[in-house]
Amino acid sequence: MITGTTKLIAHLGYPTESFRAPLIYNPYFQKNGIDAVVVPMGCRPEDYPAFLKLLFRLSNIHGALITMPHKISTMALLDETSTNAKVAGSCNAVRLGSDGRLIGDMFDGEGFVRGVLRKGKKVEGAHALIAGAGGVGSAIAASLAQAGVEHLAIFDANETTATALLDRLKKYYPQLQVTVGSADPDGFDIVVNATPLGMRRGDPLPIDIDRISPSTFVGEVVLTREITPFLEAVRARGCAFQVGTDMLFEQIPAYLGFFELPTTTADNLRAIAKLG
Fold first, then answer.
1. Which residue among 71, 86, 122, 170 is the active-site one?
2. Is there a catalytic annotation at residue 71?
């Protein structure tokens, strides 16, 4: 039930047809008597800068979830951003500070790391390889750095993209060992596919499976299918792994904390979500 006291959380992106967050947040709010609602709001890129500022003039606005294509452009519209957002170069959550300032953070990588830790894999001191230095790969790199990995290797087909991420990591984590240019997974404790490969039938595998040790923990970000060909291949090698939707559910408790709302566990959210 939406009333005059309901806290409004906008879900901003374009187009909105594929939005899944309302199907997770709203059942949780309803079940737990939390007077808040997530509402999809489709905003074209050319309208977004003006719209975001006006949105936060509403008296009942509580925050915003930011998705494509606005994650990068949001950064220039904020008054304050977290280190994770600065390293990622993008933002997926905005709230209004008590002084009226717009505060942004990035939780994609936080969700990934929370999932890895909950599965018992040690992150601090680990050596990690990320294939894909775009939005989600950069966010995962930021959170792995924050969690204390010792060595982070970045591979992207676009060398400029990989180098830009390296520069941001070095700026905020000068002690971190960062390398770019190779997707060879040999010797890494954690390997992440942060590319779109696996979304479509016939996609090549993002990483040479024969070079991955059975002791390596493997992460996936593709959401369209739970067991991608990549995960199927590493499972056959005996690797522990994390599916793409784990990152989605694990980040929501962090979002809830950011919005100063009662939080819960990823397992509870999975149990009550209405994803169909």
1. 71
2. yes
